[in-house]
Amino acid sequence: MASPYARELEIAQLAVQRAAILTKRVFHEKAKGTVSKDDASPVTIGDFGAQALIIAALRANFPGDAIVAEEEAAQLRSDDKLREPIWGLVRDTKLEDDAAERLLGGGVKDVDDLLEVLDLGRSPGGRKGRVWTIDPIDGTKGFLRGGQYALALALLEDGDVKVGVLGCPNLPVDDEAPLAADIGANQTDAEGRGVIFSAVVGQGATSRPLGTGGLAQGKRIKMKEVTDMASASFCESVESCHSNQSEAAQIAQRLGITKPSVRMDSQAKYGSIARGAGDIYLRLPTSKTYQEKIWDHAAGDLIVREAGGQVTDTKGQRLDFGVGRTLATNSGVIAAPAAVHGRVLEVVQEVLGLK
Ligand SMILES: Nc1ncnc2c1ncn2[C@@H]1O[C@H](COP(=O)(O)OS(=O)(=O)O)[C@@H](OP(=O)(O)O)[C@H]1O
Ligand SMILES: [Mg+2]
Ligand SMILES: [Mg+2]
Ligand SMILES: [Mg+2]
C-alpha cells in the first residue's frame, strides 16, 4: 500500500516545480509587472501566474479541497495590461516531462478561467476538513531584490499540517553548502541552485533538486545539532519591519551567540535550518496588530518539525493553522533544534518581558 499522502506529496511537488519554471522566467526579466496591494506590499505577474498554475493542479486532482492562497484576482479584473502577460506565462508554462505534466492535468483554459482559478484560493480556512494553503512567491521583496524567495504549498487537515512543500529556486542544491555563502543580493538560480524541501507528517523531511520535468531523487534532511551556542547563529528576515532585529541581537548576546545573524527572505529560512545549513529561525513581532498569514509558515513549520526541530511562537505555543487565514492566536516564531528550543524560548521571553 502506498504511504499516506503519497499522491498529495507527488502532486504538490510537481505543482511547485512547474510554477517555479514560471517564477524563474519572471525573476530574470527586467519588467516584473509589479503593482502595490492595498497593504502597500508588492505583487508581481510571477505571484499571480504561479498561484494560478498551482491551483489549477489542485483543482484537477483534489476538486473537493478548500484553498487558502495569498493572491486574488480583483486587481486583474480591471487591469488588462497586467492580466495579459500573466495569461501568456500561464498558458506557456509546462513541465518538460509529458507524463508529469499529464499527472498535473487540467490547466487553465482562458483568461476568464485564469481569474476564476485565482479566486478559488479565497477560502476562509478553519479547523475542519482538507485545506491547501499557497504562497506562490514568499518573499516577494527578496524576489524583486534578486535574493531568496520560495514557492510554498501545504495541506492542512482539521487544522494540522500534513504535507509541506517549499520550492527555493535560489538556494544551493547541496545541503552541506554553508548558509552564509549562499545568500545576498546577487544569488540567482544558476546551475547548482534550486531545491525542493518537502515533508509528510510522521515520515520525515526531504530535499531534492528543483528540476523542470519529473521529480529528482530526494534525500533525508536533518537539523544540525547545536552542542555549543557560541557556534550557532540566527536566521532572520531581511526586512526589519517583518521581525525585530534589535531584540534578536539582545537575545543572541544573552545566549552567548557570537556569530552575526544570517538574513534571508522567505521560508527559505525554514528550509535552510531544516537541512542543517543554519541553526535557529527567529521572527519577533514588530507590531501588536500584524497577524502572520498561514501561507507564510505552514510548509516550513512541518518541514522543520519533521527534520527534528520544534516550532512555537514567542509564548511557547505551537503555531495554530486552524483559526482561519491568519495565525491569529500566535505571536512571532521560534524554530530551533528540539534540544535547544526550550533554552531559546526562555531567553526570548526574558528579553520580550513575557515572564
Ligand atoms: N509587518 C509584517 N510583519 C511580519 N511579516 C510581514 C509583515 N508584512 C508582510 N509580512 C510577510 O512577510 C513575508 C515575507 O517575510 P520574510 O520573513 O520571508 O522575508 S523578509 O526578509 O522579511 O522579506 C511576506 O510574504 P510575501 O507577501 O509572500 O512576500 C508577508 O506575508
Ligand atoms: Mg509570504
Ligand atoms: Mg507571497
Ligand atoms: Mg505578499
Automatic annotation (TrEMBL):
InterPro entries: DPNP, Inositol_monoP_metal-BS, Inositol_monoP_superfamily, Inositol_monophosphatase-like, Inositol_monophosphatase_CS. The keyword Amino-acid biosynthesis does not apply. The lineage of its organism: Eukaryota, Fungi, Dikarya, Ascomycota, Pezizomycotina. Converts adenosine 3'-phosphate 5'-phosphosulfate (PAPS) to adenosine 5'-phosphosulfate (APS) and 3'(2')-phosphoadenosine 5'-phosphate (PAP) to AMP. Mg(2+) binds at E70, D135, I137, D138, D296. One of its GO terms (molecular function) is 3'(2'),5'-bisphosphate nucleotidase activity. Keywords: Hydrolase, Magnesium, Metal-binding. This is 3'(2'),5'-bisphosphate nucleotidase. It comes from Thermothelomyces thermophilus (strain ATCC 42464 / BCRC 31852 / DSM 1799). It catalyses: adenosine 3',5'-bisphosphate + H2O = AMP + phosphate; adenosine 2',5'-bisphosphate + H2O = AMP + phosphate; 3'-phosphoadenylyl sulfate + H2O = adenosine 5'-phosphosulfate + phosphate. Its cofactor is Mg(2+). Belongs to the inositol monophosphatase superfamily. GO terms for biological process: inositol phosphate metabolic process; phosphatidylinositol phosphate biosynthetic process; sulfate assimilation; tRNA decay. Its EC number is 3.1.3.7. Gene3D superfamilies: 3.40.190.80, Fructose-1,6-Bisphosphatase, subunit A, domain 1 (3.30.540.10). The keyword Zinc does not apply.
